[in-house]
Design brief:
Elements lengths: L3 H26 L10 H22 L3 H26 L6 H29 L1
């Protein structure tokens, strides 16, 4: 079972991940960095989701039940965007391989956070 220390670590990682995501996404969106073959909807999703990462991280740090649901919704939304991205790639759309890696990292991270947070909520309800 996850401990409060584990949730605190996940919360810190989620907040840091969110801040870095917003900063890097904004740099590309507003012309401060060259990102190569940008897939617009993925970039916008990631940048906006970064704010949700911070919110869920704050919820996890305060051991709020809604944070587990938020983590699950972030994993689900990321999976949907990854599916749309796959359709874009299979349709011949331009992309960068780092986008594949970034989506895989985000999906893996939020799936793990959702599972761990769900267990923490179940434990707290006992």
């Amino acid at each position: 079972m996850p401990t409060p220390r584990t949730l605190a670590l996940l919360a810190a990682l989620a907040i840091a991940f969110g801040v870095l995501t917003v900063v890097s996404g904004a740099r590309v969106l507003f012309g401060g960095a060259d990102a190569g073959q940008v897939v617009g909807f993925v970039l916008w999703f990631n940048c906006l989701a970064g704010f949700a990462y911070v919110a869920v991280g704050l919820g996890l740090s305060r051991q709020r039940r809604w944070a587990a649901t938020g983590a699950m919704l972030l994993a689900l939304a990321t999976a949907i965007v990854a599916g749309l991205f796959a359709a874009h790639v299979l349709g011949g759309g331009a992309y960068e391989m780092r986008t594949v890696g970034a989506l895989a990292l985000r999906l893996g991270f939020w799936t793990a956070v959702a599972l761990i947070a769900r267990r923490a909520v179940q434990r707290a309800m006992r």
